[in-house]
């Protein structure tokens, strides 16, 4: 059955091969850049130049310091620029550049389209050198590079202005410059600029315009590339930043080049090739089928060949060197220890004058490679004011490390349970006022809503509890410790241990034990427990008992609610200083989130509406409903049902929506 398409393919191939003997070309086209395109590109250093946001970023769009960097990105195959037999090749290339400054008001340095003998970026080619040359190679034939520069900074006397295009031959001092201000184009304002470079074997012409406008010829100059460059060259881009920075990116790139290679243009070649190709094709199909089945299995088992390759190929935060993190934390000095958990130890550190928290994943823990990758790549991309930001990661000497923003006020549990701790050594923490507590539960709700509904991928936190809520300098809540709950579940699956089933006892929805997986609704349940403990200043329940549903804060509070005096449950440390109506509505909301039937729990959207006073809390029965499984969806339409019902999904972890 599968042979018919193959035969068709072969016929097309033969047709193509015969045709290609008359018109040879070196063509490629990227209408945008996706991770997939990396295999067709050659990146000088992929922690500097890489694909992000559908564009080829020559100097990075990463977290962290991007000053004084230079990078290059090329098409993966060399272009035959000239041959003795056929002379110089012609080419016509169009690309769209977008240069924007990230934060700084000042921009630097620039970007260039280059033809280069060498794929490496010269050492110390940042700043004015544009990644083209450095102080040693500038002006020498050793550089062996020809470029069209788009300069956004007047770096030295001879530079025309901060918005020009120039022709660079083995030097960043242009032999020819033209200001783009004459053509209505401002390079550094983050606007797409279309550039077309044509070379007809004698003259090089450069056209520049805004994307949808007619191209302006900026210059045309006679140029003998055969004298300047070797026969085979890399084509691509270089860029640099200096004291001032910008994001230098290419959003699209199209290249049509003539192939002047010495071809053995006889039919024999075709006849040898066709059988070889067809054999390769057939075995390729077989192998593909085999592989595609097999790889599915691999994914489940989490067998990644190499952590680095996997993380590098995605939009990831900064990669740290182990040495940097050792320096930052005083070689993981115990004095810098912030806390210790099942997954490792967290240290405080200082990096580039900024405070950071470094989690050193314990080698004994089962936070395996796959979870580490998941945390770095998925969580690293999340960005919300109520999430602890992942600054970077490190994998060296088999050490897995995660770097987060430092949270000056530590975790929330210390503030709400301090009286419960008999220990006198703990410095006493101030009591959080009602307004602060409300702000905290609101912040966590916003973070969860973002995780569930706001980002490209739906993320379940799985381990919401007060010790995973961090407080920043203004006591805003920041949800932290991602991927851990997910990890526990992974571990649970393989170890058949029930002690560490996803989540923390006391915070887990009753159905968790039956469905053995996390859902949006189990996250909402844990959130409900958090709300109750923050308002009541009481621990969620007997933490040593696993299924402590009957012994929980939920039961305890429901009793108050049944008796019609729910506000009496409020933390006595508040000394009655709170808005009764707000507290009552928040407590009822907390109970609604902890409804034994997951179908009745509100969505995080509804939670937010209640907390901001835009909606009343959902109806909650006076008597605590008993837990029945399987849980039935509500029979009569209930105000929040449309939200909850549609939400009751079965994905178990991070899943694309
Ligand atoms: C790539 O760039 C990073 C970031 O600047 C640097 O730390 C690393 O050493 C570079 N790698 C190579 C092979 O030059
Ligand atoms: C960047 O490099 C220049 C020299 O090229 C140096 O003067 C400057 O201090 C460096 N800036 C940073 C932030 O490293
Ligand atoms: C080069 O490409 C541009 C854009 O595709 C096109 O308009 C132009 O005619 C081409 N020039 C030549 C000489 O083929
Ligand atoms: C300039 O680059 C070349 C080639 O990468 C290198 O050999 C040379 O040491 C560099 N010069 C400086 C000053 O870094
Ligand atoms: C770089 O090379 C050019 C010649 O191409 C020369 O005019 C210029 O002075 C050189 N710049 C430096 C800083 O060496
Ligand atoms: C380009 O835009 C920037 C930012 O708006 C501005 O500072 C600069 O003067 C502009 N340059 C030209 C040449 O118009
Ligand atoms: C140019 O890039 C910047 C930063 O990546 C982005 O904000 C902006 O939307 C881009 N411009 C266009 C026209 O896409
Ligand atoms: C190159 O430019 C020169 C001068 O502008 C012109 O005389 C010549 O015809 C051009 N060559 C080609 C192949 O267009
Ligand atoms: C350019 O034109 C296309 C198609 O007409 C349009 O989708 C796009 O938004 C335009 N871009 C700009 C920057 O005007
Ligand atoms: C970069 O800034 C440093 C001081 O921070 C200064 O010494 C140096 O001259 C600057 N370099 C350039 C190229 O502006």
From TrEMBL:
UniProt xrefs under InterPro entries: ConA-like_dom_sf, Kinase-like_dom_sf, L-type_Lectin-RKs, Legume_lectin_dom, Prot_kinase_dom, Protein_kinase_ATP_BS, Ser/Thr_kinase_AS
Classification via PROSITE patterns: PROTEIN_KINASE_ATP (PS00107), PROTEIN_KINASE_DOM (PS50011), PROTEIN_KINASE_ST (PS00108)
Keyword ATP-binding included in the entry's annotation: yes
Main localization category: membrane
GO CC entries: membrane
Membrane topology annotation: Single-pass type I membrane protein
Keywords: ATP-binding, Kinase, Lectin, Membrane, Nucleotide-binding, Receptor, Signal, Transferase, Transmembrane, Transmembrane helix
Location(s) in or outside the cell: Membrane
Positions of the Protein kinase domain: 332-627
Pfam families: Lectin_legB, Pkinase
Membrane-spanning residues: 268-291
Record-level Gene Ontology MF annotations: ATP binding; carbohydrate binding; protein kinase activity
Region forming the signal peptide: 1-25
Residues the entry annotates as binding ATP: 359
Assigned protein family: In the N-terminal section; belongs to the leguminous lectin family.
Protein name as it appears in the record: Protein kinase domain-containing protein
Protein species of origin: Corchorus capsularis (Jute)
């Amino acid at each position: 059955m599968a042979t018919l398409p193959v035969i068709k393919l072969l016929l097309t191939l033969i047709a193509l091969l015969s045709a290609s003997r008359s018109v040879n070309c070196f063509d490629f086209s990227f209408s945008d850049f996706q991770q997939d395109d990396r295999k067709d590109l050659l990146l000088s250093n992929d922690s500097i130049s890489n694909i992000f946001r559908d564009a080829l970023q020559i100097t990075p769009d990463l977290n962290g310091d991007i000053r004084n960097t230079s990078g290059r990105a090329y098409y993966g195959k060399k272009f035959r620029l000239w041959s003795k037999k056929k002379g110089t090749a012609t080419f016509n290339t169009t690309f769209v550049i977008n240069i924007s400054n990230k934060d700084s008001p000042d921009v630097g340095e620039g970007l260039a389209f280059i033809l280069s003998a060498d794929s490496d970026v010269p050492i110390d080619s940042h700043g004015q050198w544009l990644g083209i040359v450095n102080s040693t190679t500038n002006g020498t034939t050793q550089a062996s590079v020809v470029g069209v520069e788009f300069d956004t900074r007047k770096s030295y006397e001879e530079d025309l202005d901060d918005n020009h295009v120039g022709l660079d031959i083995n030097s960043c001092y242009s032999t020819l410059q033209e200001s783009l201000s004459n053509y209505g184009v401002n390079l550094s304002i983050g606007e797409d600029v279309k550039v077309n470079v044509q070379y007809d074997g004698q003259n090089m012409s450069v056209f520049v315009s805004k994307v949808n406008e007619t191209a302006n010829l900026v210059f045309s100059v006679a140029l003998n590339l055969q004298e300047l460059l070797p026969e085979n060259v890399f084509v691509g881009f270089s860029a640099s930043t200096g004291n001032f920075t910008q994001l230098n990116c290419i959003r699209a790139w199209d290249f049509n080049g003539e192939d002047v290679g010495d071809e053995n243009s006889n039919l024999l070649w075709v006849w040898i090739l066709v059988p070889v190709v067809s054999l390769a094709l057939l075995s390729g199909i077989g192998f593909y089928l085999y592989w595609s089945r097999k790889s599915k299995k691999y994914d489940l088992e989490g067998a990644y060949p190499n952590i680095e390759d996997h993380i590098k190929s995605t939009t990831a935060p900064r990669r740290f060197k182990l040495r940097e993190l050792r320096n930052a934390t005083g070689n993981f000095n115990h004095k810098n220890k912030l806390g210790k958990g099942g997954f490792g130890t967290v240290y405080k550190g200082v990096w580039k004058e900024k405070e950071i928290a470094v989690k050193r994943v314990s080698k004994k823990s089962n936070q395996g490679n796959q979870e580490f990758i998941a945390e770095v790549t998925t969580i690293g991309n999340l960005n919300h004011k109520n999430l602890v930001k992942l600054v970077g990661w490190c994998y060296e000497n088999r050490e897995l490390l995660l770097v987060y923003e430092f949270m000056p006020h530590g975790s929330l549990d210390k503030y709400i349970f301090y009286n419960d701790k008999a220990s006198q050594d703990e410095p006493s923490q101030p009591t959080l006022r009602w307004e602060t507590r409300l702000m905290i539960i609101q912040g966590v709700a916003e973070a969860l809503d973002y995780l569930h509904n706001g980002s490209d991928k739906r993320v379940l936190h799985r381990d919401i509890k007060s010790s995973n809520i961090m407080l920043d300098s203004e006591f805003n809540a920041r949800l932290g410790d991602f991927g851990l709950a997910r990890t526990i579940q992974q571990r649970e699956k393989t170890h058949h241990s029930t002690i560490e089933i996803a989540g923390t006892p006391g915070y887990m929805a009753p159905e968790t034990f039956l469905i053995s997986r996390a859902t949006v609704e189990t996250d909402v349940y844990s959130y409900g427990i958090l709300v109750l403990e923050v308002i009541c200043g009481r621990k969620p329940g007997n933490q040593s008992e696993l299924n402590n549903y009957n012994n929980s804060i939920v039961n305890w509070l429901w009793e108050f609610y049944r008796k019609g005096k729910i506000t009496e449950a409020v933390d006595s440390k508040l000394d009655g200083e709170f808005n009764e109506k707000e507290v009552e509505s928040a407590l009822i909301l907390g109970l609604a989130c902890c409804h034994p039937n997951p179908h009745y729990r509100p969505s995080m959207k509804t939670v937010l509406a209640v907390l901001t006073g835009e909606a009343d809390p959902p109806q909650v029965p006076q008597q605590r409903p008993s837990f029945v499984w399987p849980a039935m969806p509500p029979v009569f339409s209930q105000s929040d049902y449309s939200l909850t019902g549609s939400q009751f999904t079965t994905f178990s972890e991070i899943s694309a929506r």
